[in-house]
Amino acid sequence: MHLIKNISLIILIIGYTLAGINHFVNPTSYHRIIPHYLPYPVVINIIAGAAEILLALLLIPTQIRPWAAYTIILMLIAFLPVHITMLVNAPFRLGKLNVTPLLAWIRLALQPVLMAWAWWYTKS
């Protein structure tokens, strides 16, 4: 089980790092899905991308891993309005991706899974 948890941690770190980098590589896609009632989508995107990268790296040291995991959970909660907005606006095109209602539902349903995955690292 320890090996599985370590491999899962590496996948989590790489996943959040790549997701964070993608905020800077494809910013327009993120600007389009930030709810219109939130001001400064460019700034929100930069903060979200930087937070994903930073929190991924903070998962590495064992001393602060629980804190990073709890913060990832909070970040995922903060991202819920984006996923709800995607669901409300589906279907729509996001770059090369066609966001269907089914895809938007799957993405929204994935949030609790990601939260549980991060929760696994709140304990040693």
From TrEMBL:
Residue ranges of the TM segments: 7-25, 37-60, 67-90, 102-121
Record keywords, A-Z: Membrane, Transmembrane, Transmembrane helix
Name of the protein in its database record: Membrane protein
Domain of life: Bacteria
